[in-house]
Write a structure and sequence with these properties.
By secondary structure, the protein is an alpha+beta fold. It has one domain: Nucleotidyltransferase, domain 5 (2-Layer Sandwich). Helix content is about 40%, strand content about 20%. The protein is built from four helices and four strands. Strands 3-2-1-4 form a four-stranded mixed β-sheet. The longest helix has 18 residues.
Length: about 120
């Protein structure tokens, strides 16, 4: 029986998570993409805490005009600024089983522009 799109994505996500994990010196930037919104958070997997988070539902980002790809770039910049303020400069990128294309790529490039290294 064929896998659904979501089951396939979760299999890919688990395969990625075997390799990519966040430490105190190099936390993990994880992405969740729904049909309407996009969420990003910087996570230290050793202690299980979220260092910084941003989403397209934040008030300053939600009020901005633009398509979903442009909004994803704003989310990337916002999460990068919060992470740098918390003392994080290098991260591991976890695309969450999504293809590195479109909104996920835009978020990553926005985070790089704001100063995160990965």
């Amino acid at each position: 029986m064929a896998l659904t799109k979501n089951e396939r994505r979760l299999r890919i996500k688990n395969r990625i998570r075997k390799v990519v994990s966040g430490t105190e010196t190099r936390p993990r930037l994880t992405v969740f993409r729904s049909n309407k919104e996009i969420y990003a958070q910087v996570v230290n997997d050793v202690t299980g805490e979220t260092i910084a988070a941003a989403s397209s539902r934040d008030k300053d980002i939600a009020s901005s005009k633009g398509n979903k790809t442009e909004v994803a770039a704003l989310v990337g910049k916002a999460v990068a600024e919060k992470a740098i303020k918390a003392g994080v400069e290098t991260i591991s990128f976890d695309r969450g089983g999504y293809l590195y294309h479109g909104r996920v790529k835009s978020l990553a490039e926005g985070a790089r522009e704001a100063g995160l290294k990965f």
